[in-house]
Write a structure and sequence with these properties.
heterodimer, A: 176 residues, alpha+beta, 2 domains, four-stranded mixed beta sheet, 7 helices, B: 650 residues, Glutaredoxin, Rossmann fold, Ubiquitin-like (UB roll), 5 domains, five-stranded mixed beta sheet, 25 helices, globular
């Protein structure tokens, strides 16, 4: 139920922002980027909406959206993890970092954990090659990564979450 | 911000800015480029500002002690960030932390004393050899920083800083003293070649677009810096956006265009932000828009964000993307100069090419043509990364040797490892081995040894880098980025990657090398655009110089660099293991069996070959060894694992 509400809010948000863009084809990618920036993924209904707005076939919008790496079609986890696999990171062992995240979270790159906490993505160079290997968790960039740092990072989030839940429980029991 | 309507007004305004700036007043310039931000530069800035407030230095009227903090773009030395330079003394502090702020203000700014521990010290030297001034650090000393040198002097969000260093004077000169033809001629005579990869003469490109009779023409900045391992365009756009805008505007004037685009990767949010602010400020002051500086010339610029596709760095694919289509290249001719964006003549140059234009107009064509080699003029920015001591951005004159870049500027290979190769030109480039390190770096010399200049990525590799793995890495990247429009590229790359994968997994067969060479030939000759046309480079090039490594993988099932996971194993030498438990605690796969006083054994079934145990085993034991091409000895029986210490034996 809550999900449907969220979805409706999202679509309303998109509808209200479309008129800021002209109806030229050249605005397709900027529109998709706007949606992506606000909602982190492209919902099928959002794609349909963009197609109608620009008077393009839905499949054509899909064609463009799937061509580019930026766009994803499923909601990411609460903490998106991006592992850089650029050349500089590669020669300093970034695939081992990716593997460690995958093993630790028991998902593959491009997937989200069942509890929607984490998702893993691979990216090709975030331009911080001097700090290789690099991983971006949430918006924070972590340089000079090592397999043991992976564990620490995730443990940090888990502790944080546990603390929050304990607070919540205490709060609830206090109220009742 | 006043609008400036004539060259005279600009000079007046500039004088005013400069007169308000006392060159003797202390100023802390701190890098807040993407690299230093990642290392925590923002916290250092906050700490410095708070400290200035605390020590009452911000309200003092007398200019001697009032302190400015300038947040600048990247000056290049990312390895030692966050870094800052204190003017007027030009004291350079490296790896600064928020906790250092108090001392910096009270010691260096107020008491004029240098803090020793924050200075540069060459790796492996003692404290006596510290270097105070930025320009004397070896990393900088061997560079020629015509383009990137201004980064530390400019707050990219403040146009006044750019004007204070002479900004927009080239635009005035072009608009008011030269004809468009003269500008084209100047750029042609300077010998400037495109910095995006192919190295085509910028002046000639401009001339083609200039000569087209069409009324509507476009100019575009290609900032889709897609080569993994390259970030000089990001640093220029982030750190000195006005220099790119100025170059672009001059180009538009020369070609006869009134609309420009900056196509920048969305992966560079700070560059997008800074260039957006720069455009706003330039418009407000009359350097962009209608009747620029009263010359009657109109020009506007729009920013378009790329959506993450490597192929969009190719100019025809970039145009498709700007038009809102999938970025698939189309055959040339017609070249964009004839038929480009929306079918109109279009001139596309790389960020660094545009940034060179104001230098040429200000100082004359000879300024650029006097630097460099016969065929390649001026300087080039490289991003020097990988297995090298001083990683970061380096700007050097064309013709400098690779050896000088890697050893003089870069400080050599860390950890006493042996240099193996340097990779230039991104995925379309090649690996250059030791024997060619003394070639002068320019477009043609690099091509001669089978590499390319590309956009300027330079990745140093040492003995721990496997060349088959490098070729596999690039082909995997290219297979993912091939747009799929033409089959030689789509299928050729995929098949090559498959073979390389087999070789790296020990499934290589006799004849694989020859088959790879054949595929390379076909892909190179038959692909539609440069992505496919140059995709075989990393394969051909590694076969050319490192054929023995391929043969070791295929014939002996051995990876000489201990990289290819299927061909290596880690093993703990029972005679050396002291059961210190460091490796078993650090192992991320829980693959090490062992306890106190029990010799550790790696469970080969569980081991993922990540190499953590090899890294952490203390060097005085060196018990963990790597094996390749030989069987792993069976684990010693459990009853023999107990370690009896000498003291206990007695």
């Amino acid at each position: 139920m809550e999900k449907d509400l969220n979805q409706e809010a999202m679509l309303n948000d998109i509808v209200s922002r479309l008129p800021a863009f002209g109806k030229e084809r050249g605005n397709l990618i900027p529109i998709l980027q706007m949606i992506h920036e606000r909602h982190a993924f492209l919902h099928p209904d959002a794609i349909k909406m963009v197609g109608e707005y620009l008077e393009m076939a839905e499949c054509e919008v899909y064609g463009v959206a799937t061509f580019y790496n930026q766009f994803r079609f499923h909601p990411p986890g609460k903490h998106p993890i991006k592992v850089c696999l650029g050349t500089a990171c590669h020669v300093r062992g970034s695939d081992i970092i990716l593997e460690n995240f995958e093993r630790k979270l028991e998902i593959h790159e491009g997937e989200t954990t069942p509890d929607l906490e984490f998702s893993i993505e691979r990216v090709a160079c975030v331009g911080c090659c001097a700090l290789a290997p690099v991983a971006v968790v949430d918006e924070t960039l972590h340089g000079h990564m090592a397999p043991s740092k992976v564990e620490g990072l995730i443990l940090g989030f888990e502790i944080e979450k546990e603390k929050e839940e304990r607070e919540k429980r205490r709060h609830e029991s206090g109220q009742s | 911000m006043p609008r400036i309507n004539s060259p005279a007004e600009l000079e007046e305004f500039r004088k005013d800015i400069i007169s308000k700036r006392d060159p003797n007043k202390p100023c802390i310039a701190i890098c807040t480029g993407t690299g230093c931000l990642a290392l925590g530069a923002a916290n250092v800035v906050t700490a410095l500002k708070e400290e200035i407030k605390k020590q009452g230095l911000e309200t003092k009227v007398d200019v001697e002690t009032k302190v400015d903090v300038r947040e600048t773009g990247c000056p290049g030395f990312c390895e030692r960030g966050p870094l800052l330079v204190i003017y007027p003394e030009e004291i350079c502090y490296l790896q600064v932390e928020p906790g250092d702020a108090e001392e910096i203000i009270s010691e260096t700014i107020v008491a004029k004393k240098v803090i020793d521990r924050l200075l540069y010290a060459a790796p492996g030297t003692d404290n006596d050899e510290k270097i105070v001034r930025e320009s004397e650090i070896p990393f900088y000393k061997h560079q020629m920083r015509n383009l990137i040198g201004n980064n530390i002097k400019i707050d990219p969000k403040n146009i006044d800083d750019y004007l204070a260093v002479g900004g927009y004077s080239a635009l005035v000169k072009a608009l008011c003293q030269e004809t468009p033809e003269q500008v084209v001629e100047m750029v042609k005579n300077s010998g400037l070649r495109g910095r995006g990869g192919a190295g085509f003469s910028a002046g000639m490109k401009w001339e083609f677009a200039r000569k087209s009779p069409e009324k509507t023409k476009y100019v575009i900045v290609n900032a889709d810096e897609g080569d993994p391992g390259a970030f000089m365009d990001r640093a220029l756009l982030e750190g000195n956006p006005h220099s790119v805008l100025e170059g672009l505007t001059i180009g538009a004037f020369a070609i006869g265009s009134h609309e420009g685009y900056i196509y920048v990767r969305q992966e560079y949010p700070l560059a997008v932000e800074n260039v957006g602010i720069a455009i706003e400020q330039a418009e407000a002051q009359g350097f962009l828009g209608k009747n620029i500086l009263g010359s009657g010339f109109d020009f506007t610029i729009e920013v378009h964000q790329g959506a993450g596709a490597f192929v969009c760095g190719e100019e025809t694919a970039l145009l498709m993307s700007l038009e809102g289509k999938p970025g698939e290249p189309r055959p040339r001719p017609p070249y964009p100069a004839v038929k480009g964006l929306w079918g109109k003549p279009t001139n596309i140059n790389n960020v660094e090419t545009w940034a060179n234009v104001p230098l040429i107009i200000n100082n004359g064509a000879d300024f650029l043509s006097s630097i460099g080699t016969e065929s390649s003029k001026g300087t080039k920015i490289f991003s020097l990364v990988g297995k090298v001591n001083n990683t970061g951005l380096v700007e050097v004159p064309m013709g400098i040797t690779l050896r000088d870049i890697i050893y003089e500027v870069g400080g050599g290979v860390p950890g006493g490892k042996k240099f193996k190769a340097v990779q230039t030109g991104g995925p379309s480039g090649g690996c250059i081995p030791e024997e060619h390190l003394d070639i002068g770096v320019d477009f043609d010399q690099l091509a001669k040894v089978g590499a390319i200049m590309g956009s300027g990525g330079m990745i140093v590799m040492d003995e721990d880098t496997c060349m088959v793995d490098v070729a596999k890495y690039f082909l995997k990247f290219l297979a993912g980025e091939s747009c799929g429009k033409c089959s030689p590229c789509r299928e050729g790359i995929r098949q090559m990657h498959k073979i390389l994968n087999n070789v790296s997994e020990g499934k290589g067969r006799e004849g694989d090398i020859e088959l790879l060479e054949e595929l390379c030939e076909a892909t190179r000759n038959a692909s539609l655009c440069a992505l496919g046309g140059t995709a075989p480079n990393p394969v051909l090039n590694t076969i050319r110089y490192f054929r023995d490594e391929y043969e070791a993988h295929i014939k002996e099932k051995r990876c000489p660099a201990y990289v290819c996971k299927e061909l290596i194993a880690y093993y703990i030498d029972p005679d050396k293991c002291t059961a210190c438990m460091i490796c078993s605690r650090k192992c991320p796969a829980e693959a090490i069996v062992g306890a106190k006083k029990q010799i550790h054994v790696i469970d080969q079934e569980k081991c993922t070959n990540c190499g953590t145990c090899f890294e952490v085993c203390p060097s005085r034991f060196s018990a963990v060894t790597r094996l390749s091409g030989e069987p792993v000895p069976p684990p010693i029986p459990e009853e023999e694992r107990t370690i009896v210490r000498k003291s206990e034996k007695k």
